[in-house]
Sequence to fold (392 residues):
Amino acid sequence: MVALTRFEPMRTVALIVGTRPECIKMAPLYFELMQSKTIRPVLVVTAQHRQMLDQTLAVFGLRPDVDLNLMQPGQGLADLTARVLTSVHSWISMARPDAVLVQGDTTTVLGSALAAFYANVPVGHVEAGLRTDDMRSPFPEEMNRRLTAPLVRWNFCPTEQARENLLSEAIDDKSCTVTGNTVVDALLWTRARLQGLGQDAEVIARLGVPPEFAQRYLANPKARWLLVTGHRRESFGLGFEQICRALQQLTERHPDLGVLYPVHLNPLVQEPVHRLLGKNPRIALIAPARYEDFVWLMDRATVILTDSGGVQEEAPSLGKPVLVLRNTTERVEAVAAGTCTLVGTDPARICQETTRLLDDPAEYLRRSKLQNPYGDGTAARKIRAVLEQDLG
Ligand code: UD1
Ligand code: UDP
Fold:
């Protein structure tokens, strides 16, 4: 008798990605799902970010299956939310994936989760459960993630604390799995790749740093320099002016110190940063760095000053002290580990805390421990296991 083979159709899972950090954190999961025998990943980009997304897709060699091309210069929250909701909903209604995955707390996340809910397609939330308990900080991200939580069938929590945050909002424990953060998967992969290439001169050339700055700081392992990033909406205006004043004052107080600042493309960041810091020869303002080049920079900077969520999660793996230019953080584990310290945007506080790290070697050492509470690089594998079991 001839055995009949029953071919199970592959389940289609759409990974919806809008911005640079979503791309970095979804890339490991996309590659993991590519290995699956039962799930076929489909990469859908809203392109909430255009240039910064394309730059990051290229680093990982990713080609979107669908590109909704939604970014508009100077886009507002309401119009972007509306565009994501309607465009993603149209695509989901037409393509009917078996599940949708979103990552983080951007407008793409909230709009896509709601679109999937309307289309009756289950949603998985990667990096679920982060909370500051302050609805205005980060704005609008704290609200985005709170509104997303009840729309979700699978909550992939980076830490136990994140899971507890969801349980306290009456989210079903059965929907939660603690997986670690996929950013650690991406970071370890990228670091290993960089080490294999041994290409310092090429990275320095690609960064577009003025040659004198590159020579004095990047090519000299003993030089002291700060790596800076910033983009948070709640700091627009006064906050950014204060951060810039602090950086200026730090170069005045420490005559050897350099500052390297890849400036986010948001015009509300570009304008004050270039106006206030553009003429200081010890401050290099450059375009957003490719992810692998930014990892190279994080590895070599003396101290990192940032309001970035992702950088707070990456720094503990690099043993690099971070001063967080915000008044709140949802990355409480990195603060508890000693790597991250909240300093806000007050210039006096920023100068004081930076100077402390520069002048006190024991304190610097204490805050440079190599231990990452966000995982060990296996988050994507754990997420795949849950999806394969449930979508089987
Ligand atoms: C967004 C996310 C934020 C995330 C951040 C990562 C929201 C509300 N905000 O903030 O959670 O931490 O991305 O960086 O979802 N622009 C470009 N080219 C780009 C990217 C941005 O020109 O490649 C400019 C455009 O003028 C755009 C503006 O920046 O309109 C703002 O971009 P948007 O995605 O709305 O906000 P971000 O501040 O980048
Ligand atoms: N990053 C990068 N190039 C840069 C600055 C940051 O590749 O010039 C990376 C960084 O390592 C982290 C992510 O981008 O993984 C953080 O992005 P961003 O700060 O824009 O967003 P957030 O993490 O705050 O949502």
